[in-house]
Amino acid sequence: RIPSSLGNLSKLLHLDLSLNELQGELPVSVGNLHSLEELDLSANFLSSEWPISIGNLSSLKELDLSQNRFFGELPISMGNLGSLKVLDLSQNGYFGELPTSIRNLFSLEKLDLSFNNFSGEFPWSTGNFSSLKLLDLRSCGFWGKVPHSIGNFTQLQYLHLGSNNFSGDLLGPIGNLRSLEAINVAKCNFSGQITSSLRNLSQLTALDLAQNSYRGMIELDVLLTSWKNLEFLGLSLNRLSVLTKATSDTTSQKLKYIGLRSCNLTKFPNFLQNQHHLRFMDLSDNRIQGKVPKWLLDPNMQNLNGFNFSHNLLTGFDQHPVVLPGNKGPLPVPPPGTITYLASNNSLTGEIPSWICNLNILESLVLSHNNLSGLLPQCLGNFSDELLVLDLQGNN
């Protein structure tokens, strides 16, 4: 527990008790620390409603209560913390609507309320957030339209609104926020088109628009020429038709993740073969025809850990690194560094060959629902230190 005697340290400027497994409530005596500028209680097991004593700390510039068990509604008194630059209440159990007194937090540069249980609309119009650099409202329970006034948050670098019920046209208003480095608005109800104004966001490293209702055609190569630092791109599960050029001499070579599931693709985007840092790609649920290209096995693609091409119109492989639904014949040989081998729901036949035991770092082997037969290789017992999942159901 936090001792009440801390309240006697009247000249204290900085108090960091994070990562200490502290339990109980914050003692009322903390309200006596009138000179305190930074208070970090994150990553503990503190449990109570909003500590009323915090409302007395008018000199406070940074307050971090994240990753605790605080609960209840936020009080009007939080508006007394007018000097706050950092407010992090993420990963707690706060609920209800935000108090209108949040309008008094004029100096905020970082506001993180993510992973709580709030309700109602976020008070966009009530706060003067012109100094805000990070806004994280993921999984908060907020709803309503995000107003065009968000375009006035000119210092914003990180915008995370995912997994809420926000709606409206967000991309138009933020197209001129040139300091933006990361945008995550996945799993919301945003709509509209992906406009060319997003090319202004040249500092972007991450853009996740997945699982919204964006629509229309987008020339991905054109956008990517402006995003030289982009590492994460998620456009999956919208109403988009993604167009790409036949040539591959485009775009950034820093992409690590790309999600284009259900984007009406008809071919493999050629620019991907230049993305030598790519770790995962999702091109599932499209209309891609033909064979999986050879460049996927190029030594320059050695960072690629996984890909999902399921539910397309593929006819096979130039080479056979993996197995897709619908493959027939004997079990294909995967690369020696394979960690996860997923070949379920195909028409694979014959025995499980002994070469499978050469995959000495294999953690998951899933061959369920095929037509495999015969005896299991004796050497499967050698996987005792690594293998975590073995699924052979639905075979012979």
Explain the layout of strands and helices.
Elements: E1 14-16, E2 23-24, E3 38-40, E4 45-46, E5 62-64, E6 71-72, E7 86-88, E8 93-96, E9 110-112, E10 117-118, E11 134-136, E12 143-145, E13 158-160, E14 165-168, H1 171-174, E15 182-184, E16 189-193, E17 206-208, E18 213-219, H2 220-224, E19 232-234, E20 239-243, E21 257-259, E22 280-282, E23 289-292, E24 306-308, E25 313-317, E26 328-329, E27 340-342, E28 347-350, E29 364-366, E30 371-372, E31 389-391
Parallel strand pairs: 1-3, 2-4, 3-5, 5-7, 6-8, 7-9, 8-10, 9-11, 11-13, 12-14, 13-15, 14-16, 15-17, 16-18, 17-19, 18-20, 19-21, 21-22, 22-24, 23-25, 26-28, 27-29, 28-30, 29-31
Subcellular location: Cell membrane; Membrane
Domain Disease resistance R13L4/SHOC-2-like LRR: 101-279
Main location: membrane
Briefly characterize the structure.
Pfam families: LRR_1, LRR_14. The protein contains two helices and 31 strands.
How is this structure best described in words?
The protein is an all-beta fold and 396 residues long. The chain folds into three domains: 1-141, Leucine-rich repeat, LRR (right-handed beta-alpha superhelix) (Alpha-Beta Horseshoe), CATH 3.80.10; 149-319, Ribonuclease Inhibitor (Leucine-rich repeat, LRR (right-handed beta-alpha superhelix), Alpha-Beta Horseshoe), CATH 3.80.10.10; 323-396, no CATH class. 2% of the residues lie in helices and 26% in strands. It has helices spanning 171-174, 220-224, and strands at residues 14-16, 23-24, 38-40, 45-46, 62-64, 71-72, 86-88, 93-96, 110-112, 117-118, 134-136, 143-145, 158-160, 165-168, 182-184, 189-193, 206-208, 213-219, 232-234, 239-243, 257-259, 280-282, 289-292, 306-308, 313-317, 328-329, 340-342, 347-350, 364-366, 371-372, 389-391. The strands form seven sheets. Strands 1-3-5-7-9-11-13-15-17-19-21-22-24 form a 13-stranded parallel β-sheet, with no helix packed on it. Strands 12-14-16-18-20 form a five-stranded parallel β-sheet. It has a three-stranded parallel β-sheet with strand order 6-8-10, with no helix packed on it. The protein is globular, with a radius of gyration of 26 Å. The termini are far apart. 36% of the residues are buried.
